[in-house]
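Below is how a single chain appears once it has passed through the pipeline. First comes the sequence as given, then the structure the pipeline wrote out for it. We keep one example in the README because the format questions we get most often are answered faster by looking than by reading.
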Amino acid sequence: MTVRSRFAPDRGLTARMGLTMFLLGLLYVAFVAVLIALLRSWVLVVVIAAGLLAAQFWFSDRIALFAMRGRIVTPEEQPQLHGVIDRLCATADMPKPRVAVSRMDLPNAFATGRNADHAVVCVTTGLQRRLEPEELEGVLAHELSHVAHRDVAVITIASFLGVIAGLMVRFAFYSQLFGGRDRRDDDQNTAALLFAVMAVSALVYALSFLLIRALSRYRELAADRAAALLTGRPSALASALTKVTGDIARIPTQDLRTAQAFNAFFFTPALGPGSTVANLFSTHPTLERRLDQLAEISAELGRPAP
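Resulting structure:
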């Protein structure tokens, strides 16, 4: 499941990705079967599902860059950024992804793309401005490990079912809201049908949400570990985590909500869970959990923890 590279392999991540895709696949088949039975139009369901999956899979990198106001940059435009990624890719012995910059003050980074040959690593100008070179190297190594482990593509595909289910809930809700008030008695079956579609879609969305969140938290820990081992400087990555998390906490909430939809792809979440219970549904492990792991790696490497 990983691109051939010198990034430390993670069998736990590989097993979790396989299990998540298998369970989501079963859920997806059941979801489509129920929709076909309810809507009695398998052609419509299959065409819509296949079209949205293809769009999300093939254009995920463009969608993410557009939403985050990112732009592909050349080595002439960003020599320092390209230089760090060149060194990391050479060290990891992996193909170099495209490099993008988002002109946002939000300090963050993300990787996207359906495979290593079509991957993009994007950093914000806010991140570049705040981090020291060795801290930026740690963050970029973290993002490159997502590409090498192929968990970016898995998360992109896995999130598809949740997107479909969410759209179906909204479609059924608004259809009932705006189209159900003036129905006659002989149209009550239509209202019941819409309610059934909404209920099934909501259940599927909830299950896929939990599966994706569990995988997302583990893949962030796996990326931290792989990046720390590749660079040999877990303290630099820990420093970047602490600095970025603290700076994000000082950004107004309204400025973060537009980026919250991409939390699963970010180095650190734009908006944290805010409570112990909410941590169970977060896309990222807690800062304390990530720092503890990096401290353990520092001890393994014989270097002092930050």
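Strands lie at 70-72, 98-102, 109-112, 120-124.

See the next section for the split statistics.
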